[in-house]
Amino acid sequence: MNLRGARALISRTWMRNLSGWGFEWMLAFGHLIETLVYMFVWVTIARQKSLPGIERDELVVYYLIMMVLHEITYPGAHYSIGAAIRSGGFSTWLLRPLSPIFSVIASDLADKAISVSFTLLTTFILGLVLQPAIHFTFANLLLFLLAAALAYFLRFLQAYMLALLAFWTERADAFLKLSDTLLFIFAGQVAPFALLPHGLQVIAAILPYRYMLGFPVEVLQGQLSPAQLGQGFLMLLAWIGLSLLAHQVIWKRGLRRYSAVGG
Amino acid sequence: MITVRHLSKTFLIPEREPGWKAALGSLVKRHFCPVHAVQDVNFTIEPGEMVGFIGPNGAGKTTTLKMLAGLLYPSHGEVVVAGYTPWERKTAFLRTITLVMGNRGQLNWENTVADSLYVLAEIYNLPPAQYRDALEELVEMLEIKEHLPRLARNLSLGERMKCEIAAALLHRPQVVFLDEPTLGLDVSMQIRLRSFISEYNRTRGATILLTSHYMADVVSLCRRVLLIQNGSLLFDGELKHLAEKMAPFKQVRLEHGELIFERLKGLLPQFGEDITILEQSSDRTILRVRRSQASAVIARLVQEMPAVDLSVEDPPIEAVIDQVYRQGVER
Amino acid sequence: MSRYLRLIRTFARTSFQAETAFRAHFFTYLFNTVLGLGTELAGLGILFSQVESFQGWTYGRALILLGVYLLVNILLDINLWISMNTLGGEDGEVFQGTFDFTLLKPLNTQFYISFRTWDIWRILDLPVGMVIIGWGMFLLDEPLRLGAILGFLLMLLIAVCLGYSLILILETCVFYYLGAPLTWIFSTLYNMGRYPITIYPDWIRTILTWIVPVAFMTTIPTQALTGSASTWMVLAGFVLAVVLFMFASFFFHRSLRRYMSASS
Fold first, then answer.
1. How far apart are CA C264 and CA A155, in angstroms?
2. How confident is the model at residue C20 (pLDDT cuts 50, 70, 90)?
3. Using CA atoms, how far apart are residues A66 and B111, in angstroms rounded to an integer?
4. What is the pTM assigned to this prediction?
5. Angstrom distance (rounded) from CA B212 to CA B318
6. Whole-number mean pLDDT of chain A?
7. What pLDDT shows up at residue C208?
8. B98-142 pLDDT, tens digit each
């Protein structure tokens, strides 16, 4: 019954054929609520004690944007890749002239169109109901779009790499779960970066998770000093670089092993 | 045992024109098209009978079967099976019947066959002694002893089918519905299953209703057939009579040599319309002869060519059925 | 009827004997449990690093709430959740066409689909929930009264009944959409019961209390245990459980009839 930990391996193609948008919306609804709960928690806390540099309105905006970004960046790749590797269907992917990564991104974006539209609509309505004050500067918006695109790529890459671990082990699921947990704690869902207890904050600044989700939102809200902005983008790019390197290694080794084992 | 009166079933199937305008329109108002799957079907089956249910795909056989088993509500008409109205699904009724489907099974995939059978015994509330006896009998008749401790998913299709049948008959139902039970099985397994069904019918006196696309099943098991096409019952009687009615022919097969072949070429046209040449080659000729003229034609052939190797057969039942499916039954 | 109880025992035993029931990878199971628990506690810990309490909910009280949330979750997972989920989905009975066999069994269909599959190993998770509750009670440093325990147990029963009814309603939709498992919606909404429902604005609170009564599954049992639940709320929960159960059963049987009229 646990949405976060154990998503049933229901074939999305089948569900989509059968119930079309309904299924994607149901998933998006699940992701949305996961994040929304924390908004209410923090808003309640903010009402009774003024938090360091964060007000109710900012919290609301933070979480609303996060909800949309969470849905956009939510990795849809891993289950299909893992399943294809286990079943041996991965071979067909390898026969194609393009690296599988492209077709995975393409289908991911197609899926997202449906689920993100749901999230956008709901977020918009929530925004109308909650009416937080919004101040974005144009510069921040541009930076946000840049950060968001990079975040999408980083999160996608991480999930893709973890999925490729299916080359080696049946237990790749365990790594995905671990990654989900770390994301939950450090990406800014449970609490915005600024509100994390000091020890966790230090870890969060180093791990890639914050940069996959929380960081772009912080950029948009314009609460980061130029130094912090620079640091953040640097970390983001560094993690992307690291991930690409790791991906190359995993991919090559994985292919070798996959063909050796005989797919 | 089974009485069916004026049974009808109409489904409403949603339909839509191609194109996106129609797709949007269907959100507001859906168009339904009535499909008359079963139309005014009447028949009665006595206890202990074994009846074949034949007809082309989509004729309404499965729909009728489902209504008899209580899985579907009819649009019209009444059905009485073993004294009950099927769709009321009374417990006592459900204990009297069973359904075997060739393409689907009820055995637990993740449990051993023995476990699945045990659960069924509990569900059907079988007293332990009865369960033991029934199990022993079925295991022996179906030869599934070594499959019992195995998982259903590890069995081959034939082995699984045998176990499915054991599961279906565990509670000793008086009415047995078989929906394509030999589907996908190899020839020897088909033969074994057929003999099992026949023996079960004989020893237990169970009423058996069988649908199958393998005519061998129907021919070897059922004297009486019900032919359904386009939802209507077109024929109810012995298969033999259907064949005689639809294809009132006999097939005459002549095995001969070159010399006879030449003589036949001259002789056959003299029979005129009484015969049709199905196949003719230098060593074999197959004729289709009108049943009424058969003895006369054969007598003449024998007289004219005593050295010829001649045999007489009924046309293959598949050809008859094919003709029926395509052209219907002439009254 | 004792027959039905015997059947439940048979179903539970059979599920336990099923191949996939065996935790072949005990360490994976352990890992998942520890990870899940760690996540929950981390989340709670982060929140309470900023405040001592909010809306009267201290860390101890929130811990109890978390424990109750997990406990009810486990109770539903042991049987009802997976049993009813056999109907829907790509592997589900309705889509695969094996639902006919279910209909042919001389058993009440609702009873059968509710109790036929079990995940006995989940019982091992129960101590986890109870330990968290116990720890929270310890932190609260409040005396445990018999009345509170009884009220709590009653609320647990009500919670399971409510959960069952909600899952049944969602699962029944399978007959309308040929298999779509809508039960995830329940998971999502139940997720909102992890924290006291007082954090939500009025309209959400109303929905979560009276329409999708998640509040009665988490917050109110917690209040019952800590002695701050009003009797009339417990009573309301009881009435709600009965009403919802009757509605869910009615809806199920109605939908079954419709399915038997329309399926070809």
1. 46
2. low
3. 46
4. 0.86
5. 12
6. 80
7. 92
8. 999 988 899 988 889 999 999 999 999 999 999 999 999 999 888
Per-residue pLDDT of chain B (331 residues; tens, 9 = 90+): 898 989 999 888 877 777 666 666 666 677 788 888 899 999 999 999 999 998 888 788 889 999 999 999 999 899 999 999 999 999 999 999 999 998 889 998 888 999 999 999 999 999 999 999 999 999 988 889 999 999 888 898 889 999 999 999 999 999 999 999 988 888 888 898 899 999 999 998 999 999 988 888 888 899 899 998 888 888 898 888 887 777 778 888 888 877 778 887 778 787 777 777 788 888 888 888 888 888 888 888 888 877 778 888 887 778 778 878 877 766 5
Query: Chain C within 8 Å of A191 (Cβ-Cβ)?
Result: yes
Picking from A10, A26, A184, the nearest residue to C90 by CB comes out as A10
Q: Are residues B146 and B162 in the same domain?
A: yes
Domain ranges for chain A, please list them: 12-261
Whether the CB of C178 is below 8 Å from some CB of chain A: the reply is yes
Contact state of B122 with C7 under an 8 Å Cβ cutoff: yes
CB B146 within 8 A of CB B114: no
Domain ranges of chain C: 2-262
Chains B and A touch (3+ CB pairs under 8 A): no
Same domain, B236 and B302: no
Q: Do C262 and B12 touch (CB under 8 A)?
A: yes
Q: Given phi > 0 = left and psi -120 to 50 = alpha, else beta, which region is B246?
A: alpha
Do residues B133 and B282 share a domain? Answer: no
DSSP H or E stretch at residue A257: helix A226-261
Measured between beta carbons, which residues in chain B are less than 8 angstroms from residue C21? 110
Place of tokens 């009321």: B88
Please give the structure tokens belonging to residue B120. Answer: 């069924």
What CATH number is associated with residue B261? 3.30.70.250
Q: How far apart are CA A78 and CA C69, in angstroms?
A: 29
Question: pLDDT tens for residues C143-194?
Answer: 788 888 889 999 999 999 999 999 999 999 888 876 566 888 898 999 999 9
Contact C226, C196 (CB under 8 A): no
Packing angle between helix A172-186 and helix A138-164, nearest 10 degrees?
A: 160
| C39 with A14: Cβ contact below 8 A | no
Residues of B with CB under 8 A from a CB of C: 11-12, 35, 37, 63, 66, 69-73, 87, 89, 91-92, 94-95, 97-99, 101, 104-106, 108, 110-112, 115, 118-119, 122-125, 151
Using one digit for the tens of pLDDT, what is the confidence trace for A75-93? Answer: 876 666 766 776 666 777 6
> Is the same domain home to B79 and B198?
yes
> How far apart are alpha carbons B259 and B282 in whole angstroms?
9
For residue B66, what are the domain limits?
A: 2-244
> A34, C189 in Cβ contact below 8 A?
no
Q: Which of C94, C96, C103, C108 to mutate to test the interface with B (most CBs of B within 10 A)?
A: C103
Name every residue whose Cβ is closer than 8 Å to that of residue B325 and which is 6 or more positions away in sequence.
Answer: B55, B56, B229
Long-range contacts of C239-247 (CB under 8 A, 24+ apart): C240/C158, C240/C162, C240/C210, C240/C213, C240/C216, C241/C158, C241/C161, C241/C162, C241/C165, C241/C216, C244/C161, C244/C162, C244/C165, C244/C166, C244/C213, C245/C161, C245/C164, C245/C165, C247/C165, C247/C169
How many residues are given for chain A?
263
The two tokens of residue C215 are 């509040």
Report CA-CA distances (Å) from B315 to A36, B291, B295, B297, B330.
75, 11, 16, 17, 18
Q: Could you give the ipTM of this predicted complex? A: 0.87
Helices and strands (H, E) in chain C, number of each type: 14, 2
Identify any residues that bridge with B272 across adjacent strands, giving them in sequence order: none
Q: B53 with B210: CB under 8 angstroms?
A: yes
Q: Residues B40, B16: one domain?
A: yes
